[in-house]
Amino acid sequence: MSKLMYGGVAIDDTFAEAFDMRGTALVITADTAKWARQAATTMTGFATSVIACGCEAGVDLELTPSETPDGRPGVRVLLFAMSTAELQKQLQNRVGQCVLTSPGSACYAGLHSGEEKLKLGAAIRFFGDGWQIAKKIGERRFWRLPVMDGEFVCESTAFMTKRAVGGGNLLIMGATPAKTLAATEAAVEAMHGVADAVMPFPGGIVRSGSKIGSKYKGAIASTNHFYCPTLKGAVQSAIGPEIASVLEIVIDGLTSDAVAAAMRAGLKAIAELGPEHGALRVGAGNYGGRLGKHHYRLRELVP
Amino acid sequence: MSRLTFRSRGVPPQRVDLSALTPEALMGKSQAEIAALTIQMTRKALTVGEVFDVAPGDVEEIVFEGGSERFDRIGAGLKGGAIRVVGEVGVQVGRGMTGGVVRIEGSAGPFAGSGMRGGLLEIAGDVGERLGGPLAGETEGMNGGVIHVSGGAGARAGDRLRRGFILIEGVAGDYAGSRMIAGTLAIGGMAGALPGYLMNRGTILLAEGAVEMAPTFCDCGTFKLVAARLLAAHVEPISARLGSTFRAPLRRFAGDLAALGLGEIFTAGA
Q1: Which residue of B has its CA nearest to A68?
Q2: By the CB < 8 Å criterion, does A234 face chain B?
Q3: Which domains does chain A have, with CATH numbers?
Q4: N or C: where does chain B have the smaller number of CB atoms within 10 Å of the terminal CB?
């Protein structure tokens, strides 16, 4: 595989393969940024992969009071699923269990256009047991549910896009686990500056990248042994002797452009850190281009 | 292009129905055709030309120079564009309008904004009774849009209000927000007796309280609610004073418990 050098870091001539997803965005506010973050973090927990979590989700942006509907600190979160029905189910369950329950929270649609609408407050409102009140303000409709610390305000519906993309990725390879982690953290930090994209895994990082299939029946995914450093030599490795650790960043975005922008920002951060303190090489995961229609070629994402 | 202007020739000999003088209705009509339109409210015919001097111009922006309490139904059914009246108007200004802007630089009679569904109705002076309310036999009053009254309002402002915002800077008469179905009514001055009488749902803000509150409203305490913040953000561009009142701590009275009881009256918190 030919290599391109970017800031002294080798960039594989390969591509990340990603898939169409359904996506939506929410704005969660609270009396303080701490509690807005808490609600958002709880809601996007256990949402790393659609394989077992039902959806993929993460915090997109922190919002200042001037950027939220109710003038309080807020957080924008993104949710992605493989079907409209699953996204609706995950949205309803997660807002109902994690945002409604969080002190002082309120929840609003974070997308103001899209192909379809999802029920948000319209699904949660029944918790009000008949005391819920609808309020239409301008073109937006809100539900007010009496709760024990006052009221939970929740926008009635949220828009959903069918143009979301899930599965953009980078494989960051380094000489030591510490250097690999440093490069990956720098990339994730840079990607956080890109709107409309989230990295749903812990801290944005996957250390157990997977391949499709397994030797065991019933397991739809298993360890990506090509990139496991402890198997070098024992299997057909994709890494050389200089690589001691590989970490992956998975990126989901409301648009394909957002995924590409996040990957570009991540590559730039890795290159700026350089091979001495960070990664020696960056690659990407794909399935030969057979499964996902979105292909992000790394050489097109570097200057 | 200048605005289409109707200059009043004085008080007309009878009440006139000016609902035909909207941008949509006048689009494509010549000055002569407009002047020939009949606007009488009795069997005796009366044309636009007998009541106004018509100065041709852009029909999307209509101006009435000079008003009269006999000028009824100005802007009724308005769908878009703007109408401005330099003077007072009669009954049912802006009735049933669904869009556009009607500005009255004087006072208005009863049933202003009756059955309105959208758009903005601004009245610089006072308004008569049943602001936004339904006519006899109708089950719903105002159903969308915004009414902003800089002066005071007569009795039963917001009667049967279902959706939209009624903002009154001054005082209001008795039974403000009577039989409200939903929507928001904000009153900057003192309200008369029994605001929210038999309201089912909706929000009434009384910045300076009421002469007498109904005993069927229950004091829930003082709060700074998120919903009030949303209302403030929507109201502030139209009325800074009422918007800031929504942002202050508000005492919530739930009611009318003689009806459905899902409505609320906010007063300044104590």
Answers
A1: B230
A2: no
A3: 3-18+164-300 (3.30.70.520), 21-161 (3.30.70.520)
A4: C
Residue of B nearest to A107 (CA): B226
ipTM attached to this prediction: 0.92
Nearest CA among A195, A191, A200, A203 for reference residue A268: A191
Question: Which residues of chain B have a CB within 8 Å of the CB of A138?
Answer: 234
**Token couple for B121:** 């109705």
Return the sign of the alpha-carbon dihedral for residues A269, A272, A273, A279: positive
- For B226, the closest of A70, A131, A134 (CB atoms) is A70
CB atoms within 10 A of CB A224: 18
Q: Render each residue's pLDDT in chain B as its tens digit; 270 residues.
A: 689 999 999 999 999 999 999 999 999 999 999 999 999 999 999 999 999 999 999 999 999 999 999 999 999 999 999 999 999 999 999 999 999 999 999 999 999 999 999 999 999 999 999 999 999 999 999 999 999 999 999 999 999 999 999 999 999 999 999 999 999 999 999 999 999 999 999 999 999 999 999 999 999 999 999 999 999 999 999 999 999 999 999 999 999 999 999 999 999 876
Domain boundaries, chain B: 62-268
Identify whether the C-beta of residue B179 lies closer than 8 Å to the C-beta of residue B197: yes
Closest alpha carbon within chain A to B227: A153
Domain B62-268 in CATH 1.10.3210? The answer is no
- H/E segment holding residue B244: helix B240-247
